[in-house]
Amino acid sequence: MIRKALTIAGSDSGGGAGIEADLKTYSAFGVHGLVAITSVTAQNTQEVRAIHDVDPEVVAKQIEAVADDIGVDAAKTGMLSNAEIIKAVAKTVKKYSFPLVVDPVMIAKSGAPLLREDAMDALIEKIIPLAKVVTPNKPEAEKLSGIRIENLEDARKAAKIIVEELGAESAIVKGGHLGLSEAVDVFYFNGEFKEYRAPFVDGCTHGTGCSFSAAIAANLAKGKELEEAVRIAKEFITMGIYYGAKIGYGHCPVNQNAWIEIPAEKWRVYESLRNAIKELVAIENLPQYVPEVGMNFVYALPRLYARSKDDVAGVKGRIVKFGSAVKPVGGVEFGASDHLARAILTYMNFFPETRSVLNLKYSEELIKKASNLGLRVSFYDRREEPEEIKAQEGGTIPWGIRTAIERINGKPDIIYHLGNWGKEAMILIFGETPQVVLRKLKMLIE
Ligand SMILES: Cc1ncc(COP(=O)(O)OP(=O)(O)O)c(N)n1
Ligand SMILES: Cc1ncsc1CCOP(=O)(O)O
Fold first, then answer.
1. Do 322 and 251 have their domain in common?
2. Residues in domain Thiamine-phosphate synthase ThiN (predicted)?
3. What pLDDT, in 10s, does the model give residues 378-426?
4. How many CB atoms lie within 10 A of CB 134?
5. Which of 115, 168, 232, 417 is the most exposed place for a label (fewest CB within 10 A)?
6. What would the pLDDT profile of 75-88 be if each residue is shown by its tens digit?
7. Could you give the CA distance from residue 149 to residue 159 in angstroms, rounded to a whole number?
8. Residues 46/250, Cβ–Cβ less than 8 Å
């Protein structure tokens, strides 16, 4: 069954907040998005240049059009610019019984007012009492409750006022602005407080309020209980901020796609590497090229999502010689590689599309052959490693890869080093995908 969620909100031409953020959020949760546009804003990551409010009657008609035909399983409100729009929305949503999430949008991240001064009373009187949940941030909760919020205790008081005095069914006061090491959201529902905690993430925040409230609405539309919907929305928004889309020169927007793209990419990476490893171990003359320390073959998530070794898939326990054959010791896992993960993550800082690498035992003959075949070869010399890098745990490989890339001022297919005391000489073959790495390997050794 297709679930439908409606957003009654303004449009952000920059695609970071408003209707655009809501629709992306609905999509991320597999919910069909419906829209009632309240205002059109000319906006980017730095400023709001113009606002055109839609005729309140047209706002009402949009809600009716979709509710009467398609049906609405849950809805949210965002920017409701003026008192007439607020009244029209309140009157219209009352005709239906869907749960309503209210994001009391007042000011854009860039500082522009999105709610007229004289519309605050209408928002409080007409919209808040219709809310299943209201999702203010600190300044919004202060305006609604009339109290100053300095700490979690104040946030609890404000949430209680919004429910018990203003008439919402529940309220969640978001703690992103409280300056704590954790982002603590205070939820008041059925006479009880609950806290939702996540590490404070210093990332992209334009559209957080919109996306968070839309995520609650999407999950309500899917039939989740309110507390579960809030828990999922918190996880979703933390991820979206962390993997934010670094675009524009101002406040960069939340990346709603991270929620679905990361699991999808993990699956693609896993499958592609597993297939490549099957092909690798079947190469007849491979055993002679397996180093004493073993071989690994890794594939990283796309650059936006590749931050640490846990974002790189490799073979658990490496690939080793086994009699006359070569065998992976364990399965393909994220976080299984240490050395090659550091190598590829460094390489990707220069060439983000190159996401796969494997290591071979060094042989002068292979290096000569690689050059003759037209592959670009570079190297680093461990004896030249600066003392301060040596002192840094895990610093050698990133330094070596940087040095090798800078040496040729280009994109090497192969980087080798001749080893040092206790360090085996090694060849690394890089490629966009494991299949590309395999092709280069086969050119070299078959
Ligand atoms: C059209 C529109 N609606 C809402 C907003 C507010 O979004 P933002 O500035 O990112 O603030 P938060 O809602 O995330 O706290 C907007 N800018 N434009
Ligand atoms: C390239 C390399 N250098 C030392 S061991 C090794 C093989 C792979 O190591 P890991 O499994 O940690 O990626």
1. no
2. 272-442
3. 999 988 888 888 888 889 999 999 999 999 999 999 999 998 878 899 9
4. 31
5. 232
6. 999 999 999 999 99
7. 11
8. yes
Tens-place pLDDT, residues 127-144: 999 999 999 999 999 999
Q: Among 209, 234, 256, which residue terminates a domain?
A: 256
Q: Show the tokens assigned to 148.
A: 């100053």
**CB 214 within 8 Å of CB 7:** yes
Ligand 1 site, residue 72, Cβ cutoff 6 A: no
- Within 190-229, strands assigned E span 192-199
- DSSP lists the bridge partners of residue 133 as 101
In order of 271, 313, 326, 434, the CA distances from 336 in angstroms are 15, 7, 18, 16
Q: Quick one: how far is CA 413 from the chain centroid?
A: 30
Ligand 1 centroid – CA 159 distance (Å): 21
Give the structural domain span for 20. Answer: 4-256
How many Cα atoms are found within 13 Å in the side-chain-facing hemisphere of 57?
Answer: 0
Residues 244 and 379 in one domain: no
Q: Is 340 close to ligand 2, i.e. is its CB under 6 Å away?
A: yes
Q: How many domains does the chain have?
A: 2
Residue 120's alpha-carbon distances to 102, 124, 155, in angstroms, are: 14, 6, 20
Type of residue found at 242:
Y
